[in-house]
């Protein structure tokens, strides 16, 4: 993976360089308010780590869809797109978005109704103060990134 652009995330006096292959994605992350940027970068890393731990998924493509950071299984076509972005109606919320034409969020809701807040049939919503249930979210990400393999 060759990185073109990096942003500096310096929340809580910890300076960390985050590298991106896609300059446009880096610019979007740079534009987020600092507290939201930290949370969204955490979700980004969780997506990348979950993908790298699953050989079915292959390399992810990080791009923008509707101006939002999006993660596609372009190499293997194993899964459905996962997006992350703020919740426009509430500046203290952010979300992980899934294709609303799949049954992914319905399945997540059945399995994790007490762990997450859901936005219709398309997202898992987080508040800045939330402690993310990591194992459960990794499972949701993995299901999305292997969605087409499970259908066949």
UniProtKB/TrEMBL annotation:
Domain YdhG-like residues, every copy: 37-145
Q: What is this protein called?
A: DUF1801 domain-containing protein
Species for this entry: Leptospira ilyithenensis
Q: Superkingdom of this entry's organism?
A: Bacteria
